[in-house]
Amino acid sequence: MPDEYRTVAGAGVHETEVNRSRFLCALAPAATEQEAQDFIAAVRRQHADASHNCWAYVIGADAGVQKASDDGEPGGTAGVPMLQMLLRRDMRYVVAVVTRYFGGVKLGAGGLIRAYGGAVGEALDALGTRTRRRYRLATVTVDHQRAGKLENDLRTGGREVRDVRYGEAVTIEIALPDADVDAFRSWLADVTAGTAGFEAGGEAYGDA
Prior knowledge:
Distance between the termini: 16 Å
Number of helices: 5
Shape: elongated
Low-confidence stretches: none
Largest sheet: 5 strands, antiparallel
Mean pLDDT: 93
Number of strands: 10
């Protein structure tokens, strides 16, 4: 698993114009291939009258799933440059659909490649991206007396508190960069006089 990747900040649409053709790039986060395909289908329904609805998506932190379609444009002139732009920007878990309304001027293969790839690049710039980093999930168990201060210290110290559960003791779920685990153990022992429990778990991605 890579230490980090980038994805879109949220769904949105950005429009560009090239030689009177309108290019509308719709971007959205997609956790699964099915989500990506559902988004593509929704855009196609919305722009059923368009000349083309070309698309590309990358799923997986390791970019394990990569697919693209030219939707009737000359082979390799639309979906592939869209996909290449997503990969060049280290984008993951993302789907892009570029809708083209033909303006009467043919762009040629080189012009199409620049237009479709450029539409995705401009949309990423306009809509914004965010970095997701790999974290180690961990569970901290502490008595009720120390729990409030500890939770506050974690949050003010910039730690990601994912969940807090109250029972006989208080269980706080956190996410840590792997490199910080040993230092965190030492800090936790200091601030709780050695009374807190710490258990490292699996891995997940969170906002950097």
